[in-house]
Structures are given as structure tokens and as C-alpha cells.
Design goal:
mainly beta, four-stranded mixed sheet, eleven-stranded antiparallel sheet
């Protein structure tokens, strides 16, 4: 499959609203930039899918993007930490993605595992964003980037997602599905530095989640799950010439949820 497209990225309300706010307690203030422009994204994708059996998949895809005026979170010029949003001049993104879904019973020739499946999705990504010094006065906020060329905001160099799913059919109308998922991402730009202050990066985080879906009847279902079971530290480091310095270190905690639903 070969596909090409052009999409538009519009500023969010919090990115464009001209007032100061704190995203959460204890964090530095942010302010919107009312002069943000819509970003244009030119996309090209090449994908090959192979389905050896029902419910199984092998997939490889190559992708590339050219971004004009992408919106990024940056530190503003000044002595106090203040963050806002600007349009970078341009950026390029390219990468490869591989996806595999397999039935364990067929893979191991074990009929007892016919209801167990595993999946893996992994991608590698290269990105580069650029600023032109002559356009800095057009950004709408006071910003002089520390790095005029660097990775794109929020773009991880690698992503890995894996899952294990087991489905047990109790009867024609009753079944249970247990899924365990794991994901990790490479360090990604969190805030672009200004006036010589280093860029701030979010470091890799490992995440583990469990969900159990129970279909109690044709119409009634019960779901329970737990997310972020590993509860890892989310570390943000700021770059300096010799050593990185920890900017922030937080834990989100484990989240448990349950729901009961009825479909008509």
C-alpha cells in the first residue's frame, strides 16, 4: 500500500489562549501564543501486510513526513522559567515500523494454547526540526532557541509495544478475555531550551497494564483493569555541556478501574 496525504495541525485552546496558567500544581507557568499558525503536514507511507492465518499478521511500513510550521513547547527568554508555544520553521520525520501478531497454539503446535495470542509492534524514528534566525521576530513570543537544529518536540527515536491476549469461551454468550500489555519509548524532547539553557528531555518509561473483559451474557459485560503497574519514575533531564541535570522526577501511581455495561 502506497499512500500520500496532506493534513493540518491546528493549535489547541491552551496553546493559543493569551493568558498564563499552571498545567499542574508545582510546575512552571505556561502561556498561550495567540499568533500561532496552523501547521501543514505532508505524509508519505509505504506498507506491506501479510495475513498467514485468521487473526495473524506480519506488517512492515516505511513512512516519511515533511512538516511546515509544527507547533512546539519552548522556554521563553528571561530569568524566570516561563513556557509557551511557537511554530518551528520546518521539520522532517522518517522511520520504519514492524508489527507481528501470532497465535501461540499454532506457532507451537499446541492445541491447548489455541486461545492465546501475542503481538509486537516496534518502530524506529528519525526527526529533525530547524529554525531560521531571521524569522524569530515573527514567532509572537520572545524566544531565541539554544539549538537551531534538534529532534522534533515529542518524537521518540524508538517505540516498543507488546501484548499477550488470552480468550476463554465459557458458553455461546459468556466469555472472558485477559490482556497484558507493555510499552516503552525512547527519550523525547519535552521543552526546547532558550538563550543557552539546555533542552529538557523526558527519559524512557516502561509501562505495564492488565485488563480483564467478562461478557456475562449477550447484553451484560463487566470490565476491570489496572494501568501503570510498574509505577516507574518519570524523569525529565535538562542538557548541559558536561552532565545532564534532573529537572523533574514524578510518579503517576497505579490506576485501577472497573465498569459494568449493558448493551441494547
Amino acid at each position: 500500500i502506497l499512500a500520500g496525504s496532506k493534513t493540518i495541525s491546528r493549535p489547541l485552546f491552551t496553546e493559543a489562549a493569551p493568558f498564563r496558567y499552571n498545567e499542574s500544581a508545582g510546575t512552571a507557568q505556561r502561556q498561550g501564543n495567540q499568533y500561532l499558525k496552523n501547521g501543514a503536514n505532508y505524509n508519505l507511507d509505504l506498507r506491506y501486510d501479510f495475513f498467514p492465518e485468521a487473526g495473524e499478521l506480519y506488517s512492515v511500513s516505511l513512512f516519511g513526513k515533511r512538516l511546515v510550521d509544527p507547533i512546539e513547547l519552548v522556554r521563553l527568554n528571561g530569568s524566570e522559567p516561563m513556557f509557551s508555544f511557537v511554530n518551528s520553521d520546518r521539520a522532517v520525520v522518517a522511520g520504519v515500523e514492524v508489527e507481528v501478531q501470532k497465535n501461540v497454539g499454532k506457532m507451537l503446535a499446541a492445541p491447548a494454547l489455541k486461545d492465546l495470542s501475542v503481538g509486537l509492534n516496534a518502530s524506529y524514528l528519525y526527526s529533525k526540526v530547524e529554525f531560521d534566525e531571521e524569522t524569530l521576530n515573527e514567532k509572537g513570543v520572545p524566544f531565541y532557541p539554544t539549538n537551531f537544529r534538534r529532534p522534533l518536540f515529542g518524537a521518540s527515536p524508538y517505540l516498543v509495544n507488546a501484548d499477550v491476549i488470552y480468550k476463554l469461551n465459557w458458553s455461546e454468550t459468556r466469555s472472558s478475555t485477559v490482556s497484558v500489555s507493555y510499552n516503552v519509548f525512547g527519550k523525547r524532547l519535552f521543552i526546547a531550551g532558550a538563550q543557552g539553557t539546555g533542552d529538557i528531555y523526558e527519559m524512557p518509561v516502561n509501562s505495564l497494564n492488565v485488563n480483564v473483559q467478562n461478557n456475562l451474557s449477550k447484553h451484560l459485560s463487566f470490565k476491570v483493569g489496572a494501568t501503570n503497574l510498574l509505577n516507574p519514575s518519570m524523569v525529565y533531564n535538562q542538557e548541559f555541556e558536561k552532565n545532564d541535570v534532573e529537572y523533574m522526577n514524578i510518579r503517576k501511581g497505579v490506576s485501577v478501574n472497573a465498569s459494568l455495561s449493558y448493551s441494547f
